[in-house]
């Protein structure tokens, strides 16, 4: 039916058809008032106070990712992990750092499957930064451990051996 209509008809309503033009039937000018559109940002209800888990993940992630970087560099250059340190403190920090990064990645993947998005940004965007650094650390772990396995046939165990720190 639209195709059979005369060519002189318009699809626009009458006020829009005569926008800023004089109406041909009268001597007055009709103007169409422009639409007033306003957009407002959503109230920041998402940015509530951070939970204890978020604060712990931020602190743990900011400490763990550099330790893992140091550990992976040491593993790649010497073939061994970090030295045990005084009372085994450095070795313990290394092991806890690996577990912390795996925990943050696991929490992020769980949140992604449940909500469709990753972890919240957290205060000053730190939790989002820690999440990204944790995924980069996991990628680095996979690459360096893979290279170590290809070159040496194994990766060093979690307990220091005589080969590394005899």
Description:
The protein has 166 residues and is mostly helical. The protein has a domain at 52-155. Helices cover 54% and strands 2% of the residues. Strands 1-2 form a two-stranded antiparallel ribbon. The radius of gyration is 32 Å and the shape is elongated.
Task: List key phrases describing it.
about 170 residues, mainly alpha, elongated, two-stranded antiparallel sheet
What is the 3D shape?
Answer: elongated
Order of helices and strands: HEEHHHH
Cα Rg: 32 Å
Largest sheet: 2 strands, antiparallel
Helix fraction, binned, reads: 40-55%
Class derived from helix and strand content: mainly alpha
Strand content: under 5%
Poorly predicted ranges (pLDDT <50, ≥5 residues)? none
Number of helices: 5
Overall strand count? 2
Mean pLDDT: 81
N→C terminal distance: 92 Å
How are strands sequenced across the largest beta sheet?
1-2
Keywords: Membrane, Transmembrane, Transmembrane helix
How would you summarize what this structure contains?
The protein is mainly α. The protein has 5 helices and 2 strands; from the N terminus they run αββαααα. Helices cover 54% and strands 2% of the residues.
Mind sketching the topology for me?
Layout: H1 14-17, E1 21-22, E2 29-30, H2 52-78, H3 89-115, H4 126-152, H5 162-165
Antiparallel strand pairs: 1-2
Helix pairs in contact: 2-3, 2-4, 3-4
């Amino acid at each position: 039916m639209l195709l059979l209509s005369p060519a002189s008809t318009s699809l626009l309503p009458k006020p829009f058809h005569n926008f800023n033009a004089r109406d041909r039937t009268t001597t007055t000018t009709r103007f169409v008032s422009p639409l007033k559109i306003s957009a407002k940002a959503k109230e920041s209800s998402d940015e509530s106070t951070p939970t204890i888990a978020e604060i712990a993940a931020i602190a743990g992630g900011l400490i763990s990712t550099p330790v893992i970087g140091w550990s992976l560099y040491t593993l790649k250059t010497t073939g061994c992990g970090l030295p045990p340190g005084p009372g085994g403190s450095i070795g313990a920090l290394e092991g806890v750092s690996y577990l912390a990064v795996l925990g943050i990645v696991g929490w992020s993947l769980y949140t992604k499957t449940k909500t469709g998005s990753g972890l919240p940004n957290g205060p000053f965007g730190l939790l989002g930064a820690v999440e990204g650094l944790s995924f980069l650390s996991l990628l680095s772990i996979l690459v360096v451990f893979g290279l170590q396995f290809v070159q040496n046939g194994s990766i060093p165990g979690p307990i220091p051996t005589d080969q590394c720190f005899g």
